[in-house]
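1st attempt posting a full record on here, be nice pls
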Amino acid sequence: MGRLLRGIRDRRPYPEIPTRALVVSLFLGAVLRVGSYLDLAEQTKRRRWQHLVHWPQRISDDAFDYVAERFYLEDLRHSLAAVAKQLKANKALEGCKINGLLFVSLDANEHFHSRSRCCPCCGQREVEVLDEHGQKQTVIEYYHRYVYAQINGPKINVLLDLEPLRPGEGETAAALRLLGRMRRVYGVRFFDAVTIDAWYVQGPFLNAVEKLGWWWEVVLKQERMEVFQEARQLSTGQKPALEFHDPLRQRQVQLWEVKDLTFSESYGRAVWVVHSRETWTETQIVGGNKTRQPNESDWWWMLCDQLKTYPVQMAYEAGHRRWGIENKAFNELTQHYHLEHCYHHEPVAMLAQMLILMLGFVLFSAYAVLHSQQVRLGQITMKALAHDMDLALEADLPWALWFQSG
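the predicted structure (as tokens):
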């Protein structure tokens, strides 16, 4: 861990505080869920904190603002990649594979919206609000949006990288920049395929993913698309290719598949479509009485032709696993790690802080899942474990005992 943090550099011409002291402080702040640079500055007064970061004084919030603008982002990304590669080398990602394939989920999330502060990289939109007299007014709202990449599994989830959307840019352009960089940093063999939302159902984008060396699976929602209509027509009245009970999601599943369909002229190759019909019973309380209501949902996924040799259940598992980026990344980071708080509104500083937050989140999650028996047995929550680590700063525990996730 120390080696990873020592490899992070910054562009300060005449640094007074060593980079390592600032980086370790920011990393500890991420692990311990400190919500702002002002609060982090207060934490640096602690004697044990100063001993760990090798700086015997309080570090001001202005110092964190200043260095965050000057980090080498590639150093932060390579540190995050080094953690993911070590986890894979240690076989920690084997449980994330589906039929031997490692899928990466791509999705965008919005942060830092404001109607008063902006920077050159802010997106803009018009929103209607009510003034003090109850009249509707149109105001400009500024925001930042990022595309994330994550490996999702039943036990461990690993964020790999993120890429900001530029003003006026769509998700697909940022996603392709992200995938291109991940190919350089991780290599084409690190994962096998990407799972994406319906926003990315575009022939040029899917062609670009394949040229980068990966397969793909995408949610199919647009009923107006010819491929959707054709798949529905061909599967209607047919016997399901597979029926089973999913114990994890507690539902009965029927799967249909239609192969060798044409998606679009811009894509130019055949695709495979899988339809899932899922039924379950949900308990609801109505008027103080418990009632059991039947529920049903339909899912459609489109996959590249290369994946059609795999079992149809693979498409089902990968399609649903994609939601891990919402549940195990965005929601967790927002609720417990202050993801939506802007520590310092400057483009490089925001990216640097989010990469450090991701590094702390991945390492802490790996430590909890792989090394904490109490977490695995459900005897303690990750929030409580972070609190115990915070208390441990008051004791003389060696740094090596903090993170041994490998």
